Amino acid sequence: MAExxxxxxxxxxxxxxxxxxxxxxxYKPETEKAVRKVEVVEDETLRQLKKAWxxxxxxxxxPDFYNKAANVVKKLDYSASxxxxxxxxxxxxxxxxxxxxxxxxxxxxLTNNGKDSDYVIHTAHLEVPVNLIxxxxxxxxxxNGDVGKAVGSGMKNGTITVNGNAGSAAGIGMLGGxxxxxxxxxxxFGWYMQGGEIxxxxxxxxxxxxxxxxxxxxxxxxxxxx
Length: 226
Description:
Mean pLDDT: 89
Helix content: 10-25%
Largest sheet: 7 strands, mixed
Number of domains: 1
Number of helices: 5
Number of strands: 7
Distance between the termini: 30 Å
Radius of gyration: 16 Å
Strand order of the largest sheet: 1-2-3-4-5-6-7
Oligomer: single chain
Shape: globular
Strand content: 5-15%
Low-confidence stretches: 1-15, 26-35
Order of helices and strands: HHHHHEEEEEEE
């Protein structure tokens, strides 16, 4: 089901969550890393997912880009296993402009609109981290590898477990659910957080100043309780 671009907050209207998250894309790009080649067996479902990827035209200036991705994928029949397979196949699209955020939005649309509750996404084979994984999340997602900026942005419920490091603004505008980062988390995590929990097991950058409600734990210790 498509989600509205605006996060519901207090009486004052805030900037759309995804638009805020995209601010971080102006800063220096993520450092590329050495990656291993992954062989993916292509079946008809994977071909359909790749076709849908090509249909979705990502534009970070469009406040409705998540809903547009959701409208593309909700017509498809796929399983959690297909989403996992597609995450491995994403390596072939890395040279596209806007790949980091397009991939995160598209994967989020797949998980949120899928028929399963639990999903696995692979990122360790990619040259750069994927932004916006789990935006508007309502499912249980395990990410094997690092994530880029704004993981779990605007998430409503469910869980996101990152078996790696997280870029800036983890949990931006989240309303509920739980994010666990097994590695390190960069600055501004919890920005405009409305509810839910963030657990960081590694080292942390600066905590966001504007946190309305929610709990943040660092290595098991409660460091924010609002």
